Amino acid sequence: MIALIEAGALLVLVGLVGYLLLRPANRPLPSDEQAYEKWVKEFAAGLGDRTAVVILEPDALAQLDSCLDRAQQQARLQMLSYAVKTLQTSSDQVYLDAGHANWVPASQMAARLRAADIAQAYGFSLNVSYYDSTGREIAYANQLDRDLGMSKRFVIDTSRNGTRSARGRLDPPAVSASRALPGAGGGSLASRLFTDPDTQAANWVRAHPGDPWARAIRRHIASQPTAMWFGSWSGGITAAVSAYTAAASRQHKVPVLVAYDIPDINCGGTSSSGAKQWCNPAGKQLGSAPQVLDGHGDMGLWIKAPGESDGDCGIGAGTQAGEFSPTIATDLITGRSLAGCAGQVGADRAGGKAPLPDPSPRCAQPRPPAYKNPGALSLLHVCRPLAGDGGTRRVRPGDRYRGEVHTAAG
Protein backbone atom coordinates (compact mmCIF):
# COMPACT_ATOMS: atom_id res chain seq x y z
CA MET A 1 0.00 0.00 0.00
CA ILE A 2 2.82 2.37 0.90
CA ALA A 3 4.54 1.55 -2.36
CA LEU A 4 1.34 2.25 -4.28
CA ILE A 5 0.90 5.59 -2.51
CA GLU A 6 4.49 6.52 -3.21
CA ALA A 7 4.10 5.52 -6.82
CA GLY A 8 0.93 7.55 -7.08
CA ALA A 9 2.62 10.55 -5.54
CA LEU A 10 5.50 10.17 -7.97
CA LEU A 11 3.05 10.01 -10.87
CA VAL A 12 1.36 13.20 -9.71
CA LEU A 13 4.73 14.90 -9.28
CA VAL A 14 5.89 13.84 -12.73
CA GLY A 15 2.61 15.06 -14.22
CA LEU A 16 2.95 18.42 -12.50
CA VAL A 17 6.53 18.85 -13.68
CA GLY A 18 5.47 17.94 -17.19
CA TYR A 19 2.68 20.55 -17.09
CA LEU A 20 5.08 23.24 -15.91
CA LEU A 21 7.60 22.37 -18.59
CA LEU A 22 5.02 22.27 -21.38
CA ARG A 23 3.17 25.43 -20.33
CA PRO A 24 4.50 28.53 -22.16
CA ALA A 25 6.56 30.60 -19.72
CA ASN A 26 4.58 33.77 -20.38
CA ARG A 27 1.10 32.23 -20.17
CA PRO A 28 -0.80 33.85 -17.31
CA LEU A 29 -2.44 31.45 -14.91
CA PRO A 30 -5.98 32.22 -13.74
CA SER A 31 -4.36 33.29 -10.48
CA ASP A 32 -2.65 36.13 -12.38
CA GLU A 33 -6.02 37.53 -13.36
CA GLN A 34 -7.33 37.10 -9.83
CA ALA A 35 -4.27 38.80 -8.41
CA TYR A 36 -4.65 41.70 -10.84
CA GLU A 37 -8.32 42.15 -9.98
CA LYS A 38 -7.37 42.18 -6.30
CA TRP A 39 -4.70 44.81 -7.00
CA VAL A 40 -7.19 46.97 -8.91
CA LYS A 41 -9.72 46.72 -6.07
CA GLU A 42 -7.06 47.78 -3.58
CA PHE A 43 -5.99 50.64 -5.87
CA ALA A 44 -9.63 51.80 -6.01
CA ALA A 45 -9.87 51.55 -2.24
CA GLY A 46 -6.86 53.84 -1.96
CA LEU A 47 -8.53 56.40 -4.20
CA GLY A 48 -11.65 56.40 -2.07
CA ASP A 49 -13.95 59.26 -3.01
CA ARG A 50 -11.12 61.68 -3.77
CA THR A 51 -10.94 63.17 -7.27
CA ALA A 52 -8.03 61.83 -9.31
CA VAL A 53 -6.76 61.36 -12.85
CA VAL A 54 -5.70 57.78 -13.53
CA ILE A 55 -3.60 56.72 -16.52
CA LEU A 56 -4.42 53.05 -16.96
CA GLU A 57 -1.74 50.52 -17.95
CA PRO A 58 0.64 52.19 -20.41
CA ASP A 59 1.61 49.85 -23.28
CA ALA A 60 -0.90 47.13 -22.39
CA LEU A 61 -3.00 47.60 -25.54
CA ALA A 62 -0.16 48.64 -27.83
CA GLN A 63 1.75 45.47 -26.92
CA LEU A 64 -1.30 43.23 -27.14
CA ASP A 65 -0.01 41.17 -30.08
CA SER A 66 3.71 41.37 -29.32
CA CYS A 67 4.02 38.12 -27.40
CA LEU A 68 0.57 36.91 -26.30
CA ASP A 69 -1.52 34.17 -27.90
CA ARG A 70 -5.23 34.69 -28.48
CA ALA A 71 -6.28 33.36 -25.09
CA GLN A 72 -3.78 35.62 -23.36
CA GLN A 73 -4.88 38.61 -25.41
CA GLN A 74 -8.49 38.00 -24.44
CA ALA A 75 -7.47 37.67 -20.79
CA ARG A 76 -5.64 41.00 -20.95
CA LEU A 77 -8.63 42.73 -22.53
CA GLN A 78 -10.86 41.36 -19.80
CA MET A 79 -8.46 42.58 -17.11
CA LEU A 80 -8.38 46.05 -18.64
CA SER A 81 -12.16 46.07 -18.90
CA TYR A 82 -12.40 45.15 -15.24
CA ALA A 83 -9.98 47.92 -14.30
CA VAL A 84 -11.92 50.50 -16.32
CA LYS A 85 -15.23 49.53 -14.72
CA THR A 86 -13.72 49.46 -11.22
CA LEU A 87 -11.70 52.66 -11.32
CA GLN A 88 -13.92 54.95 -13.38
CA THR A 89 -16.28 56.75 -11.03
CA SER A 90 -18.13 60.03 -11.02
CA SER A 91 -15.19 61.64 -9.19
CA ASP A 92 -12.30 60.16 -11.21
CA GLN A 93 -11.06 60.43 -14.78
CA VAL A 94 -9.64 57.15 -16.10
CA TYR A 95 -7.64 57.27 -19.34
CA LEU A 96 -6.94 53.88 -20.94
CA ASP A 97 -3.54 54.00 -22.62
CA ALA A 98 -3.53 53.83 -26.44
CA GLY A 99 0.19 53.97 -27.28
CA HIS A 100 1.15 56.69 -29.74
CA ALA A 101 0.80 57.65 -33.39
CA ASN A 102 3.98 55.84 -34.49
CA TRP A 103 3.01 52.50 -32.98
CA VAL A 104 -0.37 50.92 -33.83
CA PRO A 105 -2.63 52.06 -36.72
CA ALA A 106 -5.64 53.99 -35.45
CA SER A 107 -8.22 51.52 -36.79
CA GLN A 108 -6.49 48.63 -35.02
CA MET A 109 -6.04 50.54 -31.78
CA ALA A 110 -9.70 51.61 -31.86
CA ALA A 111 -10.74 47.95 -32.02
CA ARG A 112 -8.58 47.17 -29.00
CA LEU A 113 -9.97 50.14 -27.08
CA ARG A 114 -13.52 48.99 -27.77
CA ALA A 115 -12.70 45.47 -26.60
CA ALA A 116 -11.35 46.92 -23.34
CA ASP A 117 -14.56 48.92 -22.78
CA ILE A 118 -13.24 52.37 -23.61
CA ALA A 119 -16.89 53.48 -23.73
CA GLN A 120 -16.98 53.29 -19.95
CA ALA A 121 -13.68 55.12 -19.42
CA TYR A 122 -13.31 58.88 -19.40
CA GLY A 123 -10.90 58.71 -22.33
CA PHE A 124 -7.49 57.49 -23.50
CA SER A 125 -3.86 58.52 -23.02
CA LEU A 126 -1.19 58.97 -25.71
CA ASN A 127 2.58 59.40 -26.06
CA VAL A 128 3.42 58.16 -22.56
CA SER A 129 7.19 58.42 -22.06
CA TYR A 130 7.63 59.04 -25.77
CA TYR A 131 8.78 62.06 -27.81
CA ASP A 132 6.15 62.49 -30.53
CA SER A 133 4.86 66.01 -31.16
CA THR A 134 1.63 67.15 -29.59
CA GLY A 135 0.21 68.03 -33.02
CA ARG A 136 0.75 64.50 -34.36
CA GLU A 137 -0.79 62.98 -31.27
CA ILE A 138 -3.86 65.24 -31.48
CA ALA A 139 -4.32 64.11 -35.09
CA TYR A 140 -4.03 60.49 -33.94
CA ALA A 141 -6.58 61.12 -31.20
CA ASN A 142 -9.01 62.50 -33.78
CA GLN A 143 -8.46 59.41 -35.93
CA LEU A 144 -9.18 57.19 -32.95
CA ASP A 145 -12.41 59.07 -32.25
CA ARG A 146 -13.54 58.59 -35.85
CA ASP A 147 -12.72 54.89 -35.81
CA LEU A 148 -14.35 54.45 -32.40
CA GLY A 149 -17.50 56.17 -33.58
CA MET A 150 -17.58 58.17 -30.36
CA SER A 151 -15.91 61.25 -28.95
CA LYS A 152 -13.64 60.46 -26.03
CA ARG A 153 -11.46 62.84 -24.07
CA PHE A 154 -7.70 62.31 -24.25
CA VAL A 155 -4.46 63.28 -22.54
CA ILE A 156 -1.02 63.52 -24.17
CA ASP A 157 2.31 63.14 -22.39
CA THR A 158 4.12 66.37 -23.25
CA SER A 159 6.96 65.99 -20.75
CA ARG A 160 9.71 65.43 -23.34
CA ASN A 161 8.26 66.33 -26.73
CA GLY A 162 9.38 69.95 -27.09
CA THR A 163 10.94 71.21 -30.34
CA ARG A 164 13.27 73.95 -31.56
CA SER A 165 12.17 76.74 -33.82
CA ALA A 166 13.38 77.00 -37.43
CA ARG A 167 15.97 79.59 -36.36
CA GLY A 168 17.60 77.08 -34.01
CA ARG A 169 16.45 78.94 -30.91
CA LEU A 170 14.51 77.19 -28.21
CA ASP A 171 10.77 77.41 -28.32
CA PRO A 172 9.19 79.12 -25.28
CA PRO A 173 9.70 77.08 -22.10
CA ALA A 174 6.91 75.25 -20.39
CA VAL A 175 4.11 77.49 -19.23
CA SER A 176 2.09 77.27 -16.06
CA ALA A 177 -0.63 74.68 -15.81
CA SER A 178 -3.00 77.47 -14.80
CA ARG A 179 -2.86 78.92 -18.31
CA ALA A 180 -5.81 77.13 -19.83
CA LEU A 181 -6.55 77.89 -23.44
CA PRO A 182 -9.44 80.21 -24.36
CA GLY A 183 -12.76 78.45 -23.95
CA ALA A 184 -11.44 75.92 -21.46
CA GLY A 185 -12.72 77.78 -18.45
CA GLY A 186 -10.89 79.03 -15.40
CA GLY A 187 -12.05 76.04 -13.36
CA SER A 188 -10.44 73.49 -15.67
CA LEU A 189 -8.88 70.44 -14.09
CA ALA A 190 -5.44 71.23 -15.52
CA SER A 191 -5.24 74.32 -13.33
CA ARG A 192 -5.76 72.21 -10.21
CA LEU A 193 -3.21 69.43 -10.68
CA PHE A 194 -1.11 68.35 -7.71
CA THR A 195 2.60 69.19 -7.65
CA ASP A 196 4.34 66.68 -5.41
CA PRO A 197 6.94 68.47 -3.25
CA ASP A 198 8.88 65.22 -2.85
CA THR A 199 9.65 64.24 -6.41
CA GLN A 200 13.21 63.16 -7.17
CA ALA A 201 13.80 66.46 -8.97
CA ALA A 202 12.58 68.49 -5.98
CA ASN A 203 14.67 66.45 -3.58
CA TRP A 204 17.75 66.86 -5.76
CA VAL A 205 17.31 70.64 -5.80
CA ARG A 206 17.03 70.73 -2.01
CA ALA A 207 20.12 68.56 -1.68
CA HIS A 208 22.21 70.74 -4.04
CA PRO A 209 21.17 74.38 -3.46
CA GLY A 210 24.52 75.70 -4.65
CA ASP A 211 24.54 73.89 -7.96
CA PRO A 212 24.49 76.35 -10.90
CA TRP A 213 21.54 74.49 -12.45
CA ALA A 214 19.45 74.05 -9.29
CA ARG A 215 17.36 77.16 -9.95
CA ALA A 216 16.53 76.14 -13.51
CA ILE A 217 15.64 72.58 -12.49
CA ARG A 218 13.42 73.89 -9.71
CA ARG A 219 11.62 76.34 -11.99
CA HIS A 220 11.24 74.25 -15.12
CA ILE A 221 10.82 70.72 -13.69
CA ALA A 222 10.38 70.45 -9.93
CA SER A 223 7.64 73.09 -9.81
CA GLN A 224 5.47 71.32 -12.39
CA PRO A 225 2.85 68.63 -11.67
CA THR A 226 3.95 65.18 -12.78
CA ALA A 227 2.30 61.78 -12.53
CA MET A 228 3.12 59.25 -9.82
CA TRP A 229 3.46 55.64 -10.95
CA PHE A 230 2.13 52.71 -8.91
CA GLY A 231 2.92 49.05 -9.47
CA SER A 232 4.33 45.93 -7.84
CA TRP A 233 7.15 48.00 -6.29
CA SER A 234 4.70 50.22 -4.40
CA GLY A 235 4.13 47.78 -1.54
CA GLY A 236 0.67 47.90 -0.01
CA ILE A 237 -1.16 49.57 -2.87
CA THR A 238 -4.15 50.80 -0.89
CA ALA A 239 -1.96 52.60 1.63
CA ALA A 240 0.37 53.99 -1.04
CA VAL A 241 -2.43 55.38 -3.21
CA SER A 242 -4.33 56.68 -0.21
CA ALA A 243 -1.30 58.55 1.14
CA TYR A 244 -0.61 60.20 -2.20
CA THR A 245 -4.18 61.23 -2.94
CA ALA A 246 -4.66 62.45 0.63
CA ALA A 247 -1.60 64.71 0.29
CA ALA A 248 -3.13 66.20 -2.86
CA SER A 249 -6.54 66.56 -1.23
CA ARG A 250 -5.08 68.53 1.67
CA GLN A 251 -3.89 71.09 -0.88
CA HIS A 252 -7.23 70.98 -2.70
CA LYS A 253 -5.42 69.65 -5.76
CA VAL A 254 -6.03 66.75 -8.13
CA PRO A 255 -3.31 64.07 -8.40
CA VAL A 256 -2.34 62.20 -11.57
CA LEU A 257 -1.66 58.53 -10.93
CA VAL A 258 -0.52 55.76 -13.25
CA ALA A 259 -1.83 52.24 -12.61
CA TYR A 260 0.81 49.89 -13.99
CA ASP A 261 0.64 46.29 -12.83
CA ILE A 262 -0.95 44.17 -15.57
CA PRO A 263 0.71 40.73 -15.96
CA ASP A 264 3.24 39.99 -18.71
CA ILE A 265 3.70 43.60 -19.82
CA ASN A 266 7.34 42.88 -20.64
CA CYS A 267 6.95 39.42 -22.15
CA GLY A 268 8.12 40.54 -25.61
CA GLY A 269 11.57 41.67 -24.49
CA THR A 270 13.41 44.28 -26.51
CA SER A 271 16.34 44.71 -28.83
CA SER A 272 19.03 47.35 -28.65
CA SER A 273 18.83 48.32 -32.34
CA GLY A 274 16.61 51.32 -31.69
CA ALA A 275 18.13 52.28 -28.35
CA LYS A 276 19.68 55.51 -29.62
CA GLN A 277 16.21 56.75 -30.52
CA TRP A 278 14.41 56.02 -27.26
CA CYS A 279 16.97 55.62 -24.48
CA ASN A 280 18.02 59.04 -23.16
CA PRO A 281 18.56 60.47 -26.66
CA ALA A 282 20.37 63.79 -26.95
CA GLY A 283 18.68 66.92 -28.23
CA LYS A 284 15.25 66.34 -26.66
CA GLN A 285 13.46 69.15 -24.87
CA LEU A 286 10.75 69.74 -22.32
CA GLY A 287 7.32 70.07 -23.85
CA SER A 288 4.53 72.34 -22.68
CA ALA A 289 3.76 72.05 -19.00
CA PRO A 290 0.44 70.44 -18.05
CA GLN A 291 -2.37 72.49 -19.54
CA VAL A 292 -5.67 72.26 -21.35
CA LEU A 293 -5.19 71.70 -25.08
CA ASP A 294 -8.61 72.67 -26.38
CA GLY A 295 -12.11 73.76 -25.47
CA HIS A 296 -13.18 70.20 -24.70
CA GLY A 297 -10.89 69.74 -21.72
CA ASP A 298 -8.33 67.46 -23.39
CA MET A 299 -5.02 67.91 -21.58
CA GLY A 300 -1.28 67.76 -22.01
CA LEU A 301 0.21 66.13 -18.91
CA TRP A 302 3.67 65.24 -17.67
CA ILE A 303 3.27 61.49 -17.24
CA LYS A 304 6.96 60.62 -17.54
CA ALA A 305 8.94 62.63 -14.98
CA PRO A 306 11.52 64.75 -16.88
CA GLY A 307 15.08 64.12 -15.79
CA GLU A 308 14.52 60.52 -14.71
CA SER A 309 16.82 58.24 -16.66
CA ASP A 310 15.80 55.59 -19.18
CA GLY A 311 18.84 53.55 -18.18
CA ASP A 312 22.62 53.38 -18.59
CA CYS A 313 22.56 54.74 -22.13
CA GLY A 314 22.68 57.90 -24.24
CA ILE A 315 23.18 61.09 -22.26
CA GLY A 316 22.27 59.09 -19.15
CA ALA A 317 25.38 56.92 -19.34
CA GLY A 318 26.34 55.84 -15.84
CA THR A 319 22.84 56.23 -14.40
CA GLN A 320 20.31 53.65 -13.36
CA ALA A 321 16.87 53.50 -14.92
CA GLY A 322 14.47 55.68 -12.95
CA GLU A 323 17.26 57.65 -11.27
CA PHE A 324 17.04 61.44 -11.46
CA SER A 325 19.96 62.83 -13.45
CA PRO A 326 20.81 66.57 -13.44
CA THR A 327 22.55 66.04 -16.77
CA ILE A 328 19.41 64.70 -18.42
CA ALA A 329 17.31 67.39 -16.73
CA THR A 330 19.45 70.28 -17.94
CA ASP A 331 19.63 68.84 -21.44
CA LEU A 332 15.81 68.75 -21.52
CA ILE A 333 15.64 72.34 -20.25
CA THR A 334 18.04 73.70 -22.85
CA GLY A 335 17.11 71.37 -25.70
CA ARG A 336 20.76 70.62 -26.41
CA SER A 337 23.20 68.08 -25.07
CA LEU A 338 25.61 69.63 -22.58
CA ALA A 339 27.24 66.34 -21.70
CA GLY A 340 30.44 67.19 -23.60
CA CYS A 341 30.52 70.84 -22.50
CA ALA A 342 32.48 71.78 -25.63
CA GLY A 343 31.51 74.96 -27.45
CA GLN A 344 28.58 75.69 -25.17
CA VAL A 345 26.78 78.96 -25.18
CA GLY A 346 24.50 80.51 -22.63
CA ALA A 347 20.81 79.80 -22.81
CA ASP A 348 18.41 82.15 -24.52
CA ARG A 349 17.83 85.19 -22.35
CA ALA A 350 15.37 86.97 -24.59
CA GLY A 351 11.73 87.70 -23.96
CA GLY A 352 12.10 88.96 -20.40
CA LYS A 353 12.18 85.41 -19.03
CA ALA A 354 14.41 84.50 -16.11
CA PRO A 355 17.68 83.44 -17.72
CA LEU A 356 19.06 79.95 -17.38
CA PRO A 357 22.49 79.86 -15.74
CA ASP A 358 25.56 79.91 -17.91
CA PRO A 359 26.53 76.25 -18.22
CA SER A 360 30.27 76.90 -17.97
CA PRO A 361 30.44 76.22 -14.21
CA ARG A 362 29.02 72.80 -14.93
CA CYS A 363 32.02 72.03 -17.12
CA ALA A 364 34.53 73.45 -14.66
CA GLN A 365 33.59 71.22 -11.74
CA PRO A 366 32.42 67.64 -11.24
CA ARG A 367 28.69 67.16 -11.17
CA PRO A 368 27.10 66.24 -7.84
CA PRO A 369 25.77 62.69 -7.69
CA ALA A 370 22.38 62.01 -9.22
CA TYR A 371 19.53 61.78 -6.75
CA LYS A 372 18.30 58.33 -5.79
CA ASN A 373 14.97 58.32 -4.01
CA PRO A 374 15.33 55.90 -1.07
CA GLY A 375 11.65 55.82 -0.26
CA ALA A 376 9.87 55.19 -3.53
CA LEU A 377 10.33 53.44 -6.81
CA SER A 378 9.16 55.44 -9.77
CA LEU A 379 8.52 54.63 -13.40
CA LEU A 380 11.65 53.75 -15.23
CA HIS A 381 11.14 53.99 -18.96
CA VAL A 382 9.47 52.75 -22.09
CA CYS A 383 11.17 51.02 -24.96
CA ARG A 384 9.15 51.70 -28.08
CA PRO A 385 8.88 49.70 -31.30
CA LEU A 386 10.90 51.61 -33.86
CA ALA A 387 12.36 50.68 -37.21
CA GLY A 388 14.40 47.54 -36.75
CA ASP A 389 13.36 47.09 -33.12
CA GLY A 390 12.32 43.52 -32.56
CA GLY A 391 10.22 44.10 -29.47
CA THR A 392 9.08 46.51 -26.81
CA ARG A 393 9.19 46.59 -23.07
CA ARG A 394 9.01 48.95 -20.16
CA VAL A 395 11.76 48.59 -17.60
CA ARG A 396 10.48 48.29 -14.08
CA PRO A 397 12.26 48.06 -10.70
CA GLY A 398 14.42 44.95 -10.57
CA ASP A 399 14.32 44.33 -14.32
CA ARG A 400 17.55 43.46 -16.07
CA TYR A 401 18.83 45.88 -18.67
CA ARG A 402 22.02 45.12 -20.59
CA GLY A 403 22.93 42.49 -18.01
CA GLU A 404 22.50 44.72 -14.99
CA VAL A 405 19.74 44.90 -12.40
CA HIS A 406 18.31 48.43 -12.26
CA THR A 407 16.20 49.79 -9.46
CA ALA A 408 15.20 53.32 -8.61
CA ALA A 409 15.95 52.84 -4.96
CA GLY A 410 19.13 54.07 -3.42
Layout of helices and strands, plus pairs?
Layout: H1 2-22, H2 30-47, E1 52-56, H3 70-87, E2 92-97, H4 106-115, E3 123-126, H5 134-148, E4 153-157, H6 200-207, H7 214-222, E5 228-230, H8 237-250, E6 256-259, H9 275-278, E7 291-292, E8 299-301, H10 326-334, H11 360-364, E9 381-383, E10 393-395, E11 400-401, E12 404-405
Parallel strand pairs: 1-2, 1-6, 2-3, 3-4, 4-8, 5-6
Antiparallel strand pairs: 7-8, 9-10, 11-12
Helix pairs in contact: 2-3, 2-8, 4-5, 6-7, 7-10
Describe the structure.
This protein has helices at 2-22, 30-47, 70-87, 106-115, 134-148, 200-207, 214-222, 237-250, 275-278, 326-334, 360-364; strands spanning 52-56, 92-97, 123-126, 153-157, 228-230, 256-259, 291-292, 299-301, 381-383, 393-395, 400-401, 404-405. With 410 residues, the chain is α/β, with parallel strands linked by helices. It has one domain: Alpha-Beta Barrel (TIM Barrel). Strands 5-6-1-2-3-4-8-7 form an eight-stranded mixed beta sheet, covered by helices on one side. Strands 9-10 form a two-stranded antiparallel sheet. Helix 2 packs parallel to helix 8 (237-250) and helix 6 runs antiparallel to helix 7 (214-222). The longest helix has 21 residues, at 2-22. It is globular and about 55 Å long. The termini are far apart. Residues 1-25, 165-187, 340-368 and 372-410 have low confidence and may be disordered.
